[in-house]
Amino acid sequence: MGNSGKLETEMNRRAPSAENMEESHHLRSFSSASFSSPRFPRDRFGDPSVVRNILWLFGAISHPMSVRMKPHLKLAEALTPDGTRLSLHSHDGNFCIRLNGQELMHSSAAASEQQLGELAVQGFAGRPARILIGGLGLGFTLKAVLAKSGPDAVVEVAELIPAVVDWNRTFMNSLNGALLADPRVKILVEDVGRGLTRAKTAPYDAIILDIDNGPTAMVQANNAGHYRAQGIQRFFAALKPGGRAAIWSAKPDHAFETRLKTAGFTVKSVPAKLYATAKKDTYTIYLADKPALLAPVVVPVLAPVALPVEAPAEPLPPATA
């Protein structure tokens, strides 16, 4: 999805489902497996489906509102430049974006996106920094960057899909969309690479890349170039001395880390959680710092010292015979 989301290629790891969340408060339906346990033996209660229906009926009588399942709503749909179907959905106050029906991001599992933004501008708090964010998504990275940046900061957001910008301003205005009206924010409907090109004359203090699942799982095939040696050199050149690049990744990638170091970055990998209260880390954030210029060494210039001039020697008298 260009600069807007991340496609999970292995297990849909970013979706808040029972498989990838340690505790899911979104699950409200009974499971048949619950009634085949020792607490509900078949020989005592018979078919577990009967028990389930009895319990459901009891719950409906006691709490009639609790059994009304809130619907999953498709709010909008658009096509990516390569023709892939992108859709926005809502459920129980949460939002998610899907690519061909597969979840890319969910508003209830955005801790890593916020951490990405916080770490990217960690050293620029209060300064009039120039920041480039590759990928708007649901706006959580932008939210974190603005919270940590000073009033004179300039935050450019490169988002390839126009619909994602529109959805943030309309359907998700109460989530993070209102932040797009912040005077520090400039929305650019373009590939993040164009911002890197402009940086030749106006480099950035921080560049944030959150457009894929990381260096090896592309949402758009054209994004692969950002993670290769030549693309990394573009990031290096687009940063001011002492600047920082922050890259989101679904998993550790040692080859990518090596390429960052080869380009001249000082690299640190930071584990990130799926959601704030998770007990284990799921993702990786790479922090790549460009070395700062060393302060020029000032060599004091000493004033010239006048050396005494010796008087010419007296001529010797002529020798006598």
Form type: elongated
- CATH topology name of the largest domain, in short, is Rossmann fold
CATH superfamily of the largest domain: Vaccinia Virus protein VP39
Number of helices: 8
Q: Any idea what the CATH architecture of the largest domain is?
A: 3-Layer(aba) Sandwich
Bin the strand percentage: 15-25%
Distance, first to last CA: 112 Å
- Overall mean pLDDT stands at 80
Number of strands: 11
The top-level CATH class of the largest domain is Alpha Beta
Structural class: alpha/beta
Structure characterization notes:
Mean pLDDT is 80; it is low at 2-48. Helices cover 22% and strands 22% of the residues. The longest helix is centred in the N-terminal third of the chain and has 15 residues, at 48-62. The protein is built from 8 helices and 11 strands. It has helices at residues 42-45, 48-62, 111-120, 140-148, 162-169, 192-198, 229-238, 254-262, and strands at residues 73-79, 85-91, 94-99, 102-106, 130-134, 154-158, 185-188, 204-209, 239-249, 266-272, 283-289. The chain folds into 3 domains: 32-62, no CATH class; 73-106, no CATH class; 111-289, 3-Layer(aba) Sandwich (Rossmann fold). Strands 7-6-5-8-9-11-10 form a 7-stranded mixed beta sheet, with helices on both faces. Strands 1-2-3-4 form a 4-stranded antiparallel beta sheet, with no helix packed on it. The chain has 321 residues and is of the alpha/beta class.
